[in-house]
Amino acid sequence: MSYQEQINRTGQIIQSHDGRWDGINAESVARMQVQNRFRTGLDIARYTAKIMRGDMAAYDADPANYTQSLGCWHGFIGQQKLISIKKHFGSTKGRYLYLSGWMVAALRSEFGPLPDQSMHEKTSVPALIEELYTFLKQADARELGMLFRDLDKARETGDRLEEQRLLHAIDNYETHVVPIIADIDAGFGNAEATYLLAKKMIEAGACALQIENQVSDEKQCGHQDGKVTVPHEDFLAKIRACRYAFMELGIDDGIIVARTDSLGAGLTKQIAYVREAGDIGDQYNSFLDCDEVSAADLGHGDVLISRDGKLMRPKRLPSNLYQFRPGTGEDRCVLDCITSLQNGADLLWIETEKPHIEQIAGMVDRIREAVPNAKLVYNNSPSFNWTLNFRQQVYDRWIEEGKDVSAYDRAKLMSVDYDGTELAQEADERIRTFQRDASKRAGIFHHLITLPTYHTAALSTDNLAKEYFGEAGMLGYVLGVQRQEIRQGIACVKHQNMAGSDIGDDHKEYFAGEAALKAGGKDNTMNQFAA
């Protein structure tokens, strides 16, 4: 429905109340409706799921159509990210939000900072989803409010051409609301607990849930040691629980991202149940590190399995965990991915220990033998030392090509002494094109950085504190922050406007007319930042 159609419709409703609603202005109502396009989180999930499905189809047609996101730990951070994207690129197409369980644990728990081990309150995850979308909807309301004010000015001055341009801009307005890939960890419990939390996350607006195959009560960050996986049937039950949640709530095209930590996980808590030789439980158990034993070798309390007609004793640790054979991580990872896609998952997430395109591609090639359109969400993780990794990759390739590397010490390539070298420049170029190259070669549909805004908050705060509390004093803030905001056109330099004061003034005028006491008059110091 166009803006004018909404005005006309609202006017008819007002007129139908025999003058009792004549104090309501139809255009003001239409403006509030346009500014509040998404009434519920389910409206958001429905809208964004369609966007993401369309993007997935576009990627299948051409891997140059990959998508990206940055992890955001607060609604304001997500809002500023999308405002920036619209300002610099004119569209949010292909750009999402990522919600990191790591950052929820580290920054949003009532217990205080926690490691990424599913110890934080599960309700903090849907709460952050809701907060992110609240801030994105407010960004819409703010930007549309400015268009409405410009529209009023155009009408006041009789500028019909500008009026028509603004009406077109309002009718074709692109929202800041984009898909969010939300981390549900290992489900925070059993399959029923996973289902209940998934519902809350979807109701808050999430169209894509990322779930991992670790044991819920032993969950570790994907870049920490000590990860413990579960048998496939256990993980598939949680994937189905997520699908049930989506379908119950009417989000039939919701997206499930199945993450495997098997590449770095050498332990399991359970021996899988086997119904028949070669089934999925048997395949899982085939990776267990076992010793062949006879009846004479049995110890008190030993656990045994039968494998190929032989009696085998899985290696069990004092923690009551069982270990996998060394070197089986990639095979287990491939099996996890194929099984997940064949049982309802839409996208894969393979947590690796380094950003190496051929390592990722080698696994994806094997997965695609079974599922040709398999595609990944990939963590461009801050846990990787990108500089050192890529300089070492270039160093190793140069050795293979017979190039002279005598000027370089491979172990010390992180040193600033190498920053201007040919090797460093080639490494930086590989980092710059990593997402494009990996999407083309390794099936990566979506690139994200899990914790970037955690690091940028720390870095910018350190820089400000160093200057403000040092010799620079107030100049530390003015030079490093405010002057940059003004010159770079950062919207929140007008922080009152960003926090909603102009929206509030508009509403006061709707409600009280000329009697409205507004905050945005001539004495508002925000006017010092007028364009």
TrEMBL record:
Cofactor(s) annotated in UniProt: Mg(2+)
A Pfam family that the UniProt record links to this protein: ICL
GO-annotated biological processes: carboxylic acid metabolic process
Keyword flag Lyase: yes
Molecular function per GO: isocitrate lyase activity; metal ion binding
Binding site for Mg(2+): D183
Cofactor binding note of this UniProt entry: Can also use Mn(2+) ion.
Substrates-to-products reaction catalysed: D-threo-isocitrate = glyoxylate + succinate
Keywords: Lyase, Magnesium, Metal-binding
Residues annotated as catalytic: C221
Keyword Lyase: yes
PANTHER family: BIFUNCTIONAL GLYOXYLATE CYCLE PROTEIN, ISOCITRATE LYASE/MALATE SYNTHASE
Name of the molecule in the record: Isocitrate lyase
Native species: Sphingobium jiangsuense
